[in-house]
């Protein structure tokens, strides 16, 4: 995989610089200049075109959600992971609804931050396991079921099978074994269904499927949602 270009948006200088120094030691991550505010973030997104943004939600008097909205509207291919001291569920759910593919407290290790950044670049995401169930519950109940069902109608039967396996909590390798497909074929089906649904992560796809009435057949294993 090509190097992943990472933009850190954070007004806490010591934290941002320490994180940048640590992540720069990862051979597959390229750390861009730090953005301490919304204005600088907008400029660097335009000039540097990061693959992943590690975004603090509190940027002095400004809100990181302004950066998130800008990226979602102007650069939908850029993946945003919230890396923040904000910890309430309402903020977490709002951030995911507005387009973030992951959420990490600032107290997490740099190793996990690097792993989540890689997952985000590969169309994955991350929600802390201890709050995943509540986040899914709130996301699932946000839209009428018939709206989600209409969206799923564009999928082929095989893509729906793959989506059901994702709802069941299976990893890509397990889906391949279950459907007698290669892992690469499963990856292609997953990418295709995400593109058709205009989604960016497995978590978003699972949430949409559950809004449409799909339910785990064998029990969702939350750890697999982060793969």
CATH-defined superfamily of the largest domain = Response regulator
Tally of alpha and pi helices: 11
Q: What would CATH call the architecture of the largest domain?
A: 3-Layer(aba) Sandwich
Number of domains: 2
As for the CATH topology of the largest domain, it is Rossmann fold
Uncertain segments: 219-227
> What is the typical, i.e. mean, pLDDT?
86
User: Structural class, judged by helices and strands?
Assistant: alpha/beta
Describe the structure.
This protein is of the alpha/beta class and 227 residues long. It is 52% helix and 12% strand. The protein has a five-stranded parallel β-sheet with strand order 2-1-3-6-7, sandwiched between helices. It has a two-stranded antiparallel sheet with strand order 4-5. Helix 2 (38-48) packs parallel to helix 3 (64-74). Residues 219-227 have low confidence and may be disordered.
């Amino acid at each position: 995989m090509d190097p992943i270009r990472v933009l850190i948006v954070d007004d806490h200088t010591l934290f941002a610089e320490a994180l940048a120094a640590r992540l720069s030691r990862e051979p597959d991550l390229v750390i861009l200049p730090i953005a301490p505010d919304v204005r600088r973030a907008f400029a660097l997104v335009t000039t540097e075109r990061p693959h992943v943004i590690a975004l603090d939600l509190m940027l002095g008097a400004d809100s990181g959600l302004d950066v998130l909205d800008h990226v979602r509207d102007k650069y939908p291919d850029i993946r945003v992971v919230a890396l923040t001291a904000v910890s309430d569920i309402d903020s977490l759910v709002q951030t995911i609804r507005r387009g973030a593919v992951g959420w990490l407290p600032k107290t997490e290790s740099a190793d996990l931050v690097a792993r989540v950044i890689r997952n985000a670049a590969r169309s994955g995401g991350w929600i802390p396991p201890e709050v995943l169930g509540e986040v899914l519950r709130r996301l699932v109940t946000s839209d009428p079921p018939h709206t989600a069902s209409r969206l799923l109608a564009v999928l082929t039967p095989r893509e729906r099978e793959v989506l059901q396996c994702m709802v069941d909590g299976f990893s890509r390798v397990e889906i391949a074994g279950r459907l007698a497909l290669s892992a690469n074929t499963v990856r292609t089906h997953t990418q295709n269904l995400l593109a058709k649904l205009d989604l960016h992560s497995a978590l978003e796809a699972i949430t949409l499927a559950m809004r449409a009435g799909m339910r785990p057949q064998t029990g969702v294993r939350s750890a697999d949602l982060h793969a």
